[in-house]
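Reagents: none. Just compute today. Cadherin domain-containing protein.
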Amino acid sequence: MWEGLRLQVLLLCLGAVLWSSAAVAGSRGPQDRGHRHHHPSVYRSRERRKEGQVLHRSKRGWVWNQFFVIEEYTGPDPVLVGRLHSDVDTGDGNIKYILSGEGAGTIFVIDDRTGNIHATKTLDREEQAEYTLTAQAVARDTNKPLEPPSEFIVKVQDINDNPPVFLHGPYYASVAEMSNVGTSVIQVTASDADDPTYGNSAKLVYSILQGQPYFSVEPHSGIIRTALPNMDREAKQEYDVVIQAKDMGGHMGGLSGTAQVKITLTDVNDNPPKFSQGVYAMSVSEDKVPGEEVGRLKAKDTDQGENGLVDYTVLEGDGMNYFEISKDSETQEAVIKLKKPVDFETKRSYTLKVEATNPYLDTRFISWGPYKDTTIVKISVEDADEPPSFMATSYTFEVEENAPGGTLVGRVHARDTDIANNPIRYLIPRYTDLEEFFTISPEDGTIKTTRSLDRETQAWHNISVSATEIGGHHQDAKVRVNIKVKDVNDNAPEFATQEEVLMCENVTPGTMFILTLSLLFSLYVVSVFLRRCSRFRLSATDSTANVMVIRRGFSRMTQGVYELPIEINDNGVPPMSSTNTLMIRVCSCDSKGTILSCNVEPFVLPAGLSTGALIAILACIVILLAIVVLFVALRRQKKEPLIVLEEEDIRENIITYDDEGGGEEDTEAFDIATLQNPDGANGFLPRKDIKPELQYPLRPGLRPVANSVDVDDFIKTRISDADNDPTAPPYDSIQVYGYEGRGSIAGSLSSLESVTTDSDLDYDYLQSWGPRFKKLADLYGTKDSADDNS
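Predicted 3D structure written out:
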């Protein structure tokens, strides 16, 4: 391909060189008048106008042509494009040629003396097909224009340097199988970048390189068509076709390009379904239940999609009533299921004739049919150890109520359907007869009562009986047994309800009240008797009693309630009777007969409040009163003094407590800090045992001075505060002081410390403390004197 391209380029270059040489030779001699034009110059025309005033049309004064240059030239020297020459150029070198425009100075250069134009670079027509340039002749010394500028075009002459290209490849197409010859498949198109107006560089011809003899391609349009009839998708579905596009009209030396085309044959319904076997063998156990799967078979259809769908039907056979056929839509298989139970002992094999057909047919290929197939399915029944079978699906028996225990109810019967025919044992499951009203004989299935039954308590008994075969796999079966208890006349008739009948005081004679009787036996009432009553009359019809008022003048203040004893008899065997009391309450009514009140007096308690409720309310009240009395007694006991004074002595005031203190750590009874620091005792001391109701501030005049050293005044002040403080404990008649006063010469008054020390103390100063300390002064003073005397 590239060798042909180089050959073309060489020929075109040679032709261009020859053409350029001829053009140069023609410009130098008068023999080439066809390639340049001589026109009088502008300056020459002006001189003639001055002399003879002859006017001439101004023409261009320099010669030029439309130039061509071959693309992709790769020679060693620049390519001569052409030569510009002006008539005013006398060849003395005074004229300079100037070139401007597209590519001037870069691609195209001009010799300013000779006007020769050369292309310095390789040109590509596909990038730019032509260049517009402007030429002008100026004076070399002054650069003044000698001629007006003129435009000319340099066209890039095309060569076959671009191969055809398929822009949209690879291609994918499909065509139906069994299509006729010449059926259009797809059209492919190639593009050539060369100049379609010049030569055959862009003239394309299509051909098929791969895919024959199945497909062909039209040389000028690129349409691919089928070339063989009856192409079968089931034989081959995909074809890889290679198409070639060649320029230069397909001749030698042209460039070419190829494209891959993948063609797929689509399916049509041209194949019937086909069973792989003429006879299929299956088996089913006799213990299978209806709906269970027996087996599967499939007719193969090589078509695809809906063309490959298959439907199955049973045409004939002795198993049509026992088996049914359906289709698995995912696998396209025929599924044979059990329609009715089968019995090995009755029939051991069945035969079915199954047909497979296509639901969608193609009318073009009907003559190729038939599009169906048949096969035979043989199903054998396998023996299984079956449970016993009862003769009936359920049993219903009757027994009279009050019948003694051991009364025969009925008999159930079951048998083993297997060939072994094992004996049967019967049983009543306890969960169906929790109170064990019935028993059954294990050998023959006879059901009897265990005690008398009461229809009014339970009219029906629904139990189950289990039959188990002895031997084998101990299969069992169950049946439902419904036992009805027949009624006998063992209950006397009575009123359906014991509610009172409300009657107005102003009731008119002839008013009737209808009462419903409760008959526990389905017999009619024979008679109803009303005893010792002259105000009412009684009659009975079936299960109702009618009470009629025969007198007026009722008053609820005189008699609010009438109790009517009524005797009721039935006609059962034996006949039963009962005496019932009918309560008729007299009520106050308005003129329309609407009941207003049925109470005797307004203050009477409501009928709904029973005696038991009243007793409960009174008991609660008594209990609450007892709790209140007990609480008050406890409160009074707490307010009594807790300290008992043994002896009222102003000197000693010894207090006896009934409880034992907690020692030095017991700080709950007194505020020791306040007693030890009288400076902080600026208020009253609250009680610890009760919460004071009132608080009175201390009188300012009774508060001791903090710096006082007079012990007698301090004690008096504290006693006065305690006597006048209502919040102080009334039983607290002793004050404990741990404060001796600032600057006291006495020191501690504790006798405990004086016992444990060996120092001699002088107690003579106690004589000057007054009468309150006389006893103390006598004790210690006498001791000291005694010691001195000894």
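The two ends are 163 Å apart (CA to CA).
Action item: order primers for follow-up constructs.
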